[in-house]
Amino acid sequence: MKLLVDTHLLLWAAADKLPPDAARYIMDMSNTILFSPASIWEVAIKHGIGRTDFIVDPASLYSELLSSGYQELPITGRHTLLISGLPPLHKDPFDRILLAQAASEGLPLLTSDTMLSQYPGSLIFVGT
C-alpha cells in the first residue's frame, strides 16, 4: 500500500520516536512511504522561526527521508486545486495541501493529528 505521511510523523520517524501504530505502517516493507515537499517547507519555515518542536534541520530531514527509502510526492496544480473544495475544518495550509495530495492521488494520509482525522476521505489515524 502507498501511504502519504504527515509532517509530525516524519519528524518523529527521524527522531526514532514514532508511536507504535505509526511504526507498524512505516516499517512494513510492503508499504511505499511517501512524503510531500510541503512537509519539508513546513519544517524549513518553523525551524527558521525557532519553533522548539521543529528543531531538525530541514536539509538533513530531506536527505534522511530519501536515504531511508521514502519517496517524494511532488505537488502539482491538480493537488492545489482540490484545496478549495476541502471543508474549512482546519486552517493550516501545510495540512490542507497534504490532504489534497492524498485525495488527488487516491492515497491514505497517515496522521496522528486529530484535526485531520475529521476530514472525509482516506485517512489512517494513529494515536500518539
Features:
alpha/beta; Rossmann fold; five-stranded parallel β-sheet
Describe this structure as you would to a colleague.
The protein is α/β, with parallel strands linked by helices and 128 residues long. The protein has one domain: Rossmann fold (3-Layer(aba) Sandwich). 45% of the residues lie in helices and 12% in strands. The chain has six helices and five strands, in the order E-H-H-E-H-H-E-H-H-E-E. A five-stranded parallel β-sheet has the order 3-2-1-4-5, sandwiched between helices. The longest helix has 13 residues. The chain is globular. The two termini are 22 Å apart.
| CATH uppermost class | Alpha Beta
User: Do you know the CATH topology?
Assistant: Rossmann fold
| N-to-C span | 22 Å
Structural shape: globular
Gyration radius from CA atoms, angstroms: 14 Å
Number of structural domains = 1
The spatial strand order of the largest sheet comes to 3-2-1-4-5
Number of helices: 6
Order of helices and strands: EHHEHHEHHEE
- Share of helical residues: 40-55%
Proportion of residues in β-strands: 5-15%
CATH architecture: 3-Layer(aba) Sandwich
Overall mean pLDDT score? 94
Major sheet description: 5 strands, parallel
The total strand number stands at 5
The fourth-level CATH homologous superfamily is: 5'-nuclease
Low-confidence stretches: none
